[in-house]
Design brief:
This protein has about 100 residues and is mostly helical. The protein has one domain. The protein has four helices and two strands. A two-stranded antiparallel ribbon has the order 1-2.
Length: about 100
């Protein structure tokens, strides 16, 4: 889903457009990934507390899709994680 205004482009949530089968498979894969990947498990728990079980499953499915999209650059998974850690550490700290 895209929300664009002027020069700014924001790519957002999973919409109900597109393949229902793909959305279903992303959520199914997300449920397995939460048990095996510590980062995705953390995302799931964080969203679960704020938004509930169904939204947390979709959020993890979206994260998996983003990871798959980024992995198309033919890098291995440890390199992908290393780049993610570097990107997170370069961000400004959040205000509480």
């Amino acid at each position: 889903m895209e929300d664009s205004t002027g020069e700014r482009q924001r790519i957002g949530s999973i919409s109900k457009q597109g393949s229902r089968l793909l959305r279903f498979l992303l959520v199914e894969a997300g449920q397995v990934a939460v048990r095996r990947d510590q980062d995705l498990s953390r995302v799931y728990r964080r969203v679960l507390l704020r938004r509930g079980h169904a939204t947390a499953k979709v959020a993890v499915g979206r994260r998996l899709l983003v990871r798959a999209f980024k992995l198309r650059d033919e890098i291995d998974y440890p390199e992908f994680q290393r780049r993610g850690v570097a990107a997170r550490s370069s961000r400004r700290p959040r205000r509480l």
